[in-house]
Design brief:
Blueprint lengths: L1 E6 L12 E6 L2 E5 L5 H8 L8 E3 L5 H4 L2 H10 L6 E5 L1 H14 L11 E5 L5 E4 L2 E9 L5 E6 L4 E4 L4 E2 L11 E8 L8 E2 H10 L4 E5 L3 H14 L4 E2 L5 E4 L1
Parallel strand pairs: 3-4, 4-5, 5-6, 10-12, 12-13, 12-14, 14-15
Antiparallel strand pairs: 1-2, 1-16, 2-3, 7-8, 8-9, 8-11, 9-10
């Protein structure tokens, strides 16, 4: 299993693209979240219109899903013909056609490839391209679903936004845990901190922890010093960094 951190930034960081990744397991490639700056990061990494099998959207905040129209249109421009899957919650599934029409009026009808929308729900598991996907809500200002992916031998979890729920077992023994951590040691409503994430990862026996979605001012002024203090199994990824599990 390989993870490419397309972007690692919070919503309004002018220096860091939105928090988004690609998971590759076997022949399956699934994008996790697609905020307004994520498509350009994807194209820097690989411009192949057939690269992705699908995308999972954690929640309906713009820095996590507003890049979808650009992603879908560029794949159409690139002559994609094979199906594409969007895994998302019911609200986005139901409003998807309206969303696309608002972004690029009339273009969805011209697409040369089918789009399948699959609904995700808290507590649900499903199979996608040989991967087991599981979902659990987090504590956030919007209805956000964390995702856990397993390929039979490796495991990965991504919180999207928000603080993970305590004591559910959803993140237990995970190979790589990616948590959004807005501040260093202060939990805001709807966001984790670096220190609480480290304690959470330890309590859940996570092998490795990646800290993303860091406040832009904290990243600019204190990140170098913070990195020097992190445990050996905790890191702050950079945009376009790749990790092999």
């Amino acid at each position: 299993m390989k993870i490419v951190f397309l972007g690692v930034g919070e919503a309004f960081d002018e220096a860091q693209p939105n928090n988004s990744s690609i998971i590759t397991a076997g022949k399956t490639r699934l994008m996790l979240d697609c905020g307004f700056t994520a498509p350009s990061q994807l194209w820097k990494y690989d411009a192949d219109p057939n690269l992705l099998d699908g995308v999972n959207i954690s929640h309906q905040h713009a820095d996590h899903f507003f890049g979808l129209p650009a992603l879908l249109l560029r794949m159409w421009e690139g002559k994609r013909t094979r199906p594409f899957t969007i895994i998302c919650q019911k609200e986005l599934k139901d409003s998807f056609d309206q969303f696309m029409e608002l972004a690029y009026k009339g273009f969805k009808a011209k697409f040369s490839y089918p789009i399948e929308l699959i609904e995700s729900n808290d507590g649900q598991s499903m199979e996608f391209g040989g991967l087991k996907l599981s979902f659990e809500r987090t504590v956030h200002s919007g209805d956000n679903l964390a995702i856990r992916l397993e390929d039979g031998s490796k495991s990965f979890a991504f919180s999207g936004d928000g603080s993970p729920l305590q004591g559910t077992g959803f993140y237990k023994d995970i190979g790589l845990l990616v948590l959004e951590t807005y501040l260093y040691d202060e939990d805001r409503i709807g966001h984790s901190s670096m220190m609480s994430a480290i304690e959470f990862a330890k309590a859940n026996n996570a092998k490795t922890l990646a800290l993303t979605h860091i406040n832009r001012d904290l990243r600019r002024t204190r990140l170098a010093d913070i990195r020097a203090k992190l445990p050996t199994n905790v890191f702050v990824p950079e945009a376009l960094q790749e990790i092999e599990l």
